Amino acid sequence: MRLSAVFLVILCIALSADAVASVSLDGIRPNAETRYYVRLSEGDILTGVIVEVFDDERGGAAIKMKTAIGTATVYASQIEEITPLEQAYPHSHRIFIMPTAEPIGSNHFIGLYELLFLYGGAGIADVVSVTAGRSMVPSVPSSEQVSVLNIKATVYREEQHDLPGHISFALGANFAWLNDRNRLVNLYGVGTFTGARARITGTLFYKAAGEDVVTAQAGTIGSTNINYARGAVGIGVGLDTKLTNGRYDLHVLAELWNHDIGRPSNTAVLLGLRLWNTDFSADFGIAFFTAPAIAPVANFVWTPF
Known about the structure:
6% of the residues lie in helices and 57% in strands. The chain contains one helix and 19 strands. The protein is elongated.
């Protein structure tokens, strides 16, 4: 009940912030090189190049936007949100749980994974991204909860001349505590190609510290032994793509993980959908394990600007 209350409070704050927001066209200038994302108060979304900004005696401030189906005149009073298209998707730094090479940048967020793991993140410039979180499983003592700290630096970004989009590379370190006494450290490198419709990510990670076998306790729920040898090398592949060109607010997500490439049986696959806007996202999916096992997954993120 407490976890549900936390989520409802976050959702109400997000909706309230969106409701009182006012749109200003100050700083918006015609630029043939910049595509904009415009969300109207009725819910419609326009994308295109702004060719004129002007004041109309009857309707007030307005823009003319060249879209794929023609040039539209839109008044500021009709606009709920306007932002450069490249900045309109604040979730590009992650797929479902896999980090991409993209930075969090000037954004920050609060998330609730499986309604049991509260986490948040923030960016420093367009280089450093920091994410941290802790589980809140009822009936499990504080000393047996799970904590995670992830630090990532985007070290390279280049526009592609022969393909639409860009490629980014990042280096990072992940610190995890499976109970207070079990600390694991993974170092990783990740590369992401961002195209016109899809984002493809590949990562390579290395276990740098931690016991080869750890026993994770979870109060009265029970315990489990985790075999994860120091020096193990793992891989991950992820996809984040629009479902259709006409639905900017719906993405398909997919991830494949193997934390030790010497043991192919240690593989998991996750498939899901993301419903999003620039303030909020809701992810739902299913994870498949080679045990075999299947588990539903859900993730909710609020990204205030």
